[in-house]
Amino acid sequence: MPPLPRICTALLTSLLLSTATGCGDDGGGGGAAGAPATIPKLGEPCTSTCASGTVCENTGPFAGLCTTQCSNDAACSLLLGTSKCFGETVPRCGLPCSSDLQCPSGTHCAMAYGGEMVCLAGAPTGP
Fold first, then answer.
1. What pLDDT does 114 receive?
2. Which among 36, 38, 103, 124 could bridge 119 via Cys, Cβ 3.0 to 4.6 Å?
3. Parallel, antiparallel or unpaired: strands 107-112 and 116-121
């Protein structure tokens, strides 16, 4: 029993940072019906909810993606190491890419902001 508090602490920390199932699962099911899906992270498609530190953008090139305002690439890389700051007027964090294969499911690689390639919501438009 002494290790249980450490396990519970780790699970509580995980729950606060993302989603977790619970502490002390006996393997007998008992999970809540309709448990929430994984919360989308930076650069992933969203409809309303996003991971901590990001919002589900509803306008502009990043509409339908989890993002946040930024002032430089370093600010974005704190949320996700591969992300970068895109735009000039109201810059947003996004995922740079050179092909659709580098983008999360439900997004595609497209040119935006003066020729920079970034993952945007939706299916690829090319052949």
1. 73
2. 103
3. antiparallel
